[in-house]
Design goal:
Keywords: Membrane, Transmembrane, Transmembrane helix. This protein has about 170 residues and is an all-alpha fold. The chain has one domain. The longest helix is centred in the C-terminal third of the chain and has 37 residues. The chain is elongated, with a radius of gyration of 31 Å. It starts with 9 loop residues before the first helix and ends in a 10-residue tail after the last helix.
């Protein structure tokens, strides 16, 4: 038995979840008072978010609804928060209420954005293919022979080719 074929939007979903988890984690931490991450925290955050996006892209088709996106983004936010707290981060592992509210609101909004992007993916790709492919145009059967224009006097052609267009040297 062959494995189930992934949905056409699986890569789109995984990439969007991974990118948005990283962006949301940094933004929600900044809004919630956690500050911006340093380079070590940012590196760990990007690795964590890449993993969350890869796992989301591999989920079976029955987990492609908006609630599954909220769950994936929420789990990604928790993983991203712990990735940020593993380094020298200023606040504790248990986030404050404003930070949790910022994470939750951003998670729901981004889940709705990804769900709408998946819904519009099929029609937009169809329109794009029709525009690029276009309707076949008939080819005209009558062909005209291209004759190069000949100068009236062959001596003029010889003189035009032999006349130098270079000027005299410039004195300094």
């Amino acid at each position: 038995m062959s494995p189930a074929r992934p949905a056409a939007t699986a890569t789109l979903r995984g990439s969007a979840v991974g990118a948005l988890v990283a962006g949301l984690a940094v933004a929600a931490h900044g809004i919630g008072g956690g500050g911006l991450p340093e380079s070590a925290a940012l590196t760990l955050l990007l690795v964590t978010c890449s993993g969350v996006g890869a796992v989301t892209a591999q989920l079976p088709a029955r987990f492609h609804g908006p609630l599954a996106l909220v769950a994936a983004l929420g789990a990604g936010q928790v993983a991203a928060h712990f990735a940020l707290t593993l380094t020298s981060h200023l606040h504790s592992a248990v986030p404050a209420v404003p930070m949790v509210a910022a994470h939750a609101a951003a998670t729901v909004v981004c889940a709705l954005l990804i769900a709408n992007a998946e819904r519009l993916y099929g029609p937009l790709v169809h329109v794009w293919r029709v525009v690029l492919r276009g309707e076949p145009q008939p080819v005209s059967a009558a062909k005209t022979a291209h004759l190069p224009a000949r100068p009236a006097n062959p001596v003029d052609a010889l003189l035009r080719a032999s006349i130098s267009r270079r000027g005299p040297p410039v004195l300094v």
